[in-house]
Amino acid sequence: MPTGTVTFLFTDVEGSTRRWESHPEVMQEAMGAHDAIVRRVIAQHHGSVFTTAGDAFCVAFSLPNAALDAAIDIQLGLEAEDWGVVSPFRVRAALHTGNAEERDGDYFGPPLNRCARLLAIGHGGQILVSAPTAHLLTEGLPASVELADLGSHLLKDMERPEHVFAVHADGLVADLPTLRSESPRFEVLMDRGRLAHEAEKWEEAYVAYETANSMGELEAWDHHRFAESAFWTGRMDEAITLKEASYAKLLSAGERDAAAMTALDLAFYFKYRLAVAVSKAWVARAEKLLETEEATRGYGYLLRWNTTYALESEGDPEKAADLAEQVIQLGAELGDRSLEALGLMDKGRILVSMGRIDEGMALVDESMIAAVSGEIDADATGRNYCNMLSICDQIADYERAAEWSEAAEAWCTSHSDSAYPGICRITRAELKWLKGDWQDATADLRRAVDELTGFTPIIGAALYQIGEVQLRAGNLDGAEESFRSANEHAFPPLPGMAMLLLARGDADAGEQLLLDALISRPQPLVRARFLPALIDIECALGRFEEASTFIGELEQTAELCDSTAMRAQAADRRGVLALMTDDVDAAALSFQAAIKGWSGLRMPYESAQSRLHLGEAHRKRGNDAGAAMETEAATATLARLALARD
Question: Which residues neighbour 285 within 8 Å (Cβ) at sequence distance 6 or greater?
């Protein structure tokens, strides 16, 4: 029987009591045929029947698609039968996915109750699907099957409304009556939405507000909460539309400061969508609303916008640092820990970009303390996590990123899986695939692409990382497709594309791409991302002097950042160079240093590559036992990563 996340299929015969009263003998034969059809279909789709009661079946499936296929086949099988005087003989069916406890061949837990209540509001011949199951079915849905959105419905004895979908497919009964759900009262839904929002239960808040919004007009602050719930549940397009409406409502209600902050949120959204004119227009609206205000939270967020603009658009880090300090001071004056923490994070990011690594990272750590200790609101916490991950990635400080990510787990758990919507999910995914979790990382990246429709360069960043994972797995065609898609989305696919060219034997083309990229990127931290690939290519081309120069630069940047990952990269490349110039003793020492660094960072792929190199060094030194040991360790790691290698 399946365990963990289980998809349940519940069925029962509609109007069976009346048919038994009218035609008991015919019904006995009909129920025999019904049971045979249902059991045959369930067996075909590898379901586990764990309860039958009268004419009802309760079935568990490990895969939601199998449960859906079984439900459809049951309905088609029953519809094809000739039921005679008890016709139409139809069953209701409901699908719901969740974690339930399996004990002694039975299941226990809330998912079973919800599936039963969902079944109760349906009609004969109908298949109803809950929102969690619908979400899992989206990608693998057959072309001939459609999930029709029936909106949110209150289920008996259930506090949280359920977003319900109906299965439409050829041969299924159509034109069914409306569902038998209770009619939710507007005031009840509003209370639920506010309480869920306050508790940061974003999906619950979203469902309540979505249902209420279909029944009546939401007031300004409730509409604002609705928009926030849409954002935190990854509904980016809808969040933007709701934010635009929230701006107008807040302004009409006289909430100028909140309206200005909403305008700045929209400015950021459209900036990342490359809609520069629209972004600037929203900033202008915020400035107009705040032109007489210098001691409000909204003004603090306007200063944050100006900080980012000074750093990213004007290229003036000194000005940006001064503005970030003003944000910190205003946050302290207002007693607004969220604003103050964001200012600290911004200033830390700016100092890092200026090469003042220790000073900048001290501010990043201080800001993160406020996040993990619950001192700041959800929006600031999410922004802090996202920025921290990005900064650590910039300086290859994966140790610090991992430590803070572990500290953030409790917060993430309390926010379900919405702690890293969109942009932040991409940076977190990089940590995952560096740690060897390629499958989860790729799933996160594809989800980010779905969430961020229209956010062109950010989608490009996700596609690029998918290509990096594919390249490591030896899927060169898939990697090329991902890299080209990233480039189409305005994200330069480097250094991955250069390494792909090297793998295909065109090292010269890869070298030219990287050299051109370095000319336009003089900053040491940015150059460091390209140097390992360029060193590999120079070694492959036999240009050992150039390779040595670039290794020296990488070593210098590693010391500047105090980065274990960069040191390990430099040591590995120093070893490769020594191996190719027949200095095998020096090569072995370098590879051992690299392996030590990779192992401490728990980066299995890099560690395996350095072990393969060390095995080659041992072989050249005549140490066959050492060569075999390192090669076997590397091969075992690569096998665990599901690499197909010759």
Answer: 247, 260, 263
State the Cα–Cα distance between residues 333 and 64, nearest whole angstrom. Answer: 53
Query: What is the phi/psi pair of residue 106, to 5°?
Result: -135, 165
Say whether both 139 and 276 belong to one domain: no
Both 140 and 204 in one domain: the answer is no
Say how far apart CA 406 and CA 403 lie, in whole Å.
5
Burial environment of residue 140 by CB neighbours within 10 A (0 to 12, 13 to 18, 19 or more): exposed
Q: Structure pTM?
A: 0.67
Neighbour-count burial for 16-28, b at 16+ CB within 10 Å, e otherwise: beebbeeeeebbe
* Alpha carbon distance 155, 180 (integer Å): 9
- One-letter amino acid of 371: A
Amino acid (1-letter code) at residue 320:
A
CA distance from start to end of the chain:
38
Q: Calculate the alpha carbon distances from 549 to 149, 528, 539, 544 in Å.
A: 61, 13, 12, 9
Do you find a cis peptide bond into 2, omega within 30 degrees of 0? no
Give which of 555, 563, 643, 644 is closest to 604, Cα–Cα.
643
- 108 forms bridges with which residues in the sheet? 101
- pLDDT value at 30 more than 70: yes
Averaged pLDDT for residues 242-255: 96
Which H/E stretch holds residue 103?
strand 101-103
- Domain end, chosen from 169, 192, 223, is at 169
Question: Which domain covers residue 276, as residue numbers?
Answer: 184-293
Q: Is residue 165 one of the residues assigned to a domain? A: yes
Residue 496 lies in a domain: no
Domain boundary among 145, 169, 193: 169
Domain of residue 619, CATH code: 1.25.40.10
Whether residue 189 sits in one domain with residue 92: no
Establish if 86 belongs to a structural domain. yes
pLDDT tens for 537-573 read: 999 999 999 999 999 999 999 999 899 999 999 999 9
Q: Are residues 161 and 213 in the same domain?
A: no
Q: In this structure, are 53 and 149 located in the same domain?
A: yes
Domains held by the chain: number:
3
Kindly report the three-state secondary structure assignment for every residue of 601-638.
HCCHHHHHHHHHHHHHHHHHHCCHHHHHHHHHHHHHHH
* Contact between 267 and 282 (Cβ < 8 Å): yes
User: What proportion of the chain, given as a percentage, has pLDDT over 70?
Assistant: 96
Percent pLDDT > 90 in the chain is 64
Q: What residue has token string 């499936």?
A: 61
Residues 9 and 146 in one domain: yes
Arithmetic mean of pLDDT, 108-130: 93
Q: What are 355-372's pLDDT values in tens digits? A: 999 999 999 999 999 988
CA nearest neighbour of 111 among 27, 6, 265: 6
The token pair at 433 is 């695939």
Shared domain for 199 and 162, answered yes or no, is no
Q: Which residues pair with 9 in a beta bridge?
A: 59, 95
Cα distance between residue 341 and residue 381, in whole Å: 9
Clarify whether residues 588 and 511 are in a common domain: yes
Q: Is 558 a member of any domain?
A: yes
Report H helices in 253-377. Answer: 256-272, 276-289, 297-312, 317-334, 337-353, 357-372
